[in-house]
């Protein structure tokens, strides 16, 4: 495979056959991701929640008294914007699934906890989650599972930077292509385009 066709350049991501292993990894990851998304929708629908509301409740359930969760902590854990999470949390509070209380050390912050109703909802949901999660991850050894958790945490923490890079490089390449196309077009065509732009003003 020629270098121009490679979809990565770091040696760690390539082998003798080019980027075939990387592409295979991504195909498998997308397939597994689709299954995870579908399971999340099933879980959320089972208790009449949106997928995001379901994730918020689960995240707060896993907080501790030593490390209580507020809006910012939930947003960071789920890689979502604070404004979006605030809106969803307010809905959950209105529905009686979450409660807010002042942070014991910082009066500007609130900490979130499940209500009894919220706990009952997640208890009911856990009966569905247990067999599904066992089927999704049960073929892994304990060491493989721990390694997967560590690797995904590192990948997730870098994903936002990669997305911003994709948007920047896309804009740069598009500009370069437009400039090349403009330079390669006949002079008469360029004059017509300039005249069209002037008339359009």
TrEMBL record:
InterPro entries: HTH_MarR-typ, MarR/SlyA-like, WH-like_DNA-bd_sf, WH_DNA-bd_sf. It comes from Bradyrhizobium arachidis. Residues 190-201 have a biased composition (Basic residues). One of its GO terms (biological process) is response to stress. It holds the Pfam family MarR_2. Transmembrane segments: none annotated. One of its GO terms (molecular function) is DNA-binding transcription factor activity. Gene3D superfamilies: Winged helix-like DNA-binding domain superfamily/Winged helix DNA-binding domain (1.10.10.10). This is MarR family transcriptional regulator. Residues 176-201 are annotated as: Disordered. PANTHER family: HTH-TYPE TRANSCRIPTIONAL REPRESSOR YETL, TRANSCRIPTIONAL REGULATOR, MARR FAMILY. Residues 22-157 form the HTH marR-type domain.
